[in-house]
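Hi Prof. W.,

I finally got the Surface antigen prediction working! I wasn't sure whether to trim anything, so I left the full sequence exactly as given:
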Amino acid sequence: MRALCTTLLMVLSLSLSVSAQNLDVTFHNSIDLYEGLDEGFYSESSFGVKNPVYSAFPVTEMIRHNRVDGLFIGYQEEKMDWNNSNFLGIENVDLHGLIGYSTALNEIQYSIGAEKSIGDYRKWMLIGGEFYNSTSTEDYWRSGIFENSVSSITAGFDFHDYYKADGYGFYTLLKPIRFFELGVAYNYDKFSSLEANSDFALFSSYSSFRPNPAIDSQFDQISQQSVNLGLTLNRKGIADFSPVSATVSVKAELAGISGFNNDFTYNSYQVETKSFLRLDSSTLFKWRVMAGSITGVAPDFKNFKLGGIGSMRALGYKSLTGNQMLLSNFEIEFGKSSSHERRWPDLSSTSISLFLDSGTSTINSKNYSASNPIENFDLSVSDLSHNIGIGLGLGMIRFEVAKPIAGAEGQSSFWIRFNPTF
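And this is what came out:
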């Protein structure tokens, strides 16, 4: 584990060093490698758009389909957009929210909020809040919501699990310098279990709708207060002329703070890094590492779960679960050379990829009474399970075949994706 961490830190140091030398280029001529159906949703971080604290609020879209909501149709204005809107003549105040109808739940869902950006020449602070009552999911990082809706309504494969979030929250984002963003949010939530209410699919003979799991084996409703922290480095990603680049995201959900009257007392910590290395004008190497640790006792739906789409492609869906997690995804992509002005490979038409997925998630009972998330983090390289595979990209459509080679049992799997895995 120490060797892996040392290697990771060396890669990050080199990547951020090179990226820092190209800051002016990065933020004026950044490259978006995220070709996919949900391209507009994701930042370079899989933790969610804009800042990790975004996921402290319901993660949803105004048009979607899943086995809990059925067809959901509504209207949405996004938050954390740093807009320059003027509400009622008040400068830089922007309203945001969601209003829509769930056909399977037969109910109206909503969120309503506002935010104020601060800064005369460069916006460096954003203050906002939101009230909400909506279906949400912890699985947005596995596959995009639009992508999941397509597979759900066409073939009956719904790869997310859902719960009801009813509450409110306040947040602040800070950008003291361009490549660094810090977020903090306070949330009060009532989380409730939801049942699968719809099994509709256009090709129902192939459908495989699963029961929607309860938020916990002992509770169908819980009340939680939490402080959520998020940090991103180099969120804009890759610069035209930098052969190496990286982005780093860290988030913490603190529900074990003294004074909170919570049903569950726990603190959850996660870190994600993405590194990009341009081997030549048509070849790209990508590496994602995610690690997490939970101290205290968290409800089931907050534990880490690996396996299946978006994580380890040849293992059973969420077959590895626990309060500690380590995931590594290596991928090398072969595309075509881009124009002279853009030295990074063009992967937007046809590309071939080779990948290695490695990871594990287990329960460490020592964490139930621990306060330091690193003290008992004893996952090692020998604990990891491994999958290998090959993919073919045709624009936003990707075909992937994965096979398990070591560790936990799995089976050869075929995927049709409308987003990259990471």
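The two ends are 23 Å apart (CA to CA). Does that look reasonable to you?

Thanks,
D.
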